[in-house]
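Standup notes
- DV: blocked on the single-chain target, sequence here:
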Amino acid sequence: MEDRVRVTGRGTWGLIATLLGGLLGGGCASDFWLLPLEDDGSTMAVDLGRVRLSQAAASARARDAASAPSPGGGWWSELGAWPDAGVGDAGGVSAADATRGRALTTDARVREPRATGDVIFTEWMQDPSVTSDKDGEWVELYNPDFERAVTLRGCILHDGGLDRHTIEKELSVAPRGFAVLAASAGALGEQRPPPGYVYSGFALSNSADELLLSCGGQVIDAVVYGGGRGFPSTPGASVSLDPAALDARANDQGQRWCAATSVYRRGAEGQGDRGTPGALNDHCAGAAGR
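- DV (later): unblocked, structure below
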């Protein structure tokens, strides 16, 4: 590939390449390649020879592998990356859907959710303050698999009543990655990448409701909130699962959730909607071990 750039294994990228080399069985990678996945170069891939990862996936794996200093304010700000890309095979990362906020995967490593917990709900916005509910609602899904992406095409987002939407377009969730599905393309505002998918026929009650994802006739995850179950309900703040509770059993428990504190969208008068759509959630104080 003529437009790739060879980079010596120094600084932050060098640390990432070294850690990835150990994780993936490739040894210490002293040099590696950066490959552009978008025409403007905003998304890059790391080519370690045996396995190629997107910039975001590389930073996520390196961050999991060691507690390293955070130059320039942390991995995400240092690398300018969003967790929106997946692992490619030796042939590289396919950019068939290379748009911000969407997962990049290769077909060989994509599977369909089959069992409970293959994909889980980790966050949702039921009552935005900057915009209307019909324009600002969204849900976030997480793939806990370390190795393989999942495709949600054909899966059904629904509640226990009449709300129901079949995901009709390709939507992949990278290994240990997130996907945001929203009521409108502008639900996340201008400061965040757009949602990976826009649904219709599904809405979230501000008081009590159900969130279900079914694939191939199997309920993959279900969360029932409200009705005294201990889930938070704060206007302008998403309902956010503690990062220590990323599994299908823990996310059934209202005490493992809290109101988000990070602002992702600001209004004209300084108010803002809080949440972390498409990224790791805020820590919930006092939620650990419950």
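- Follow-up: The first strand starts at residue 5 and ends at 8.
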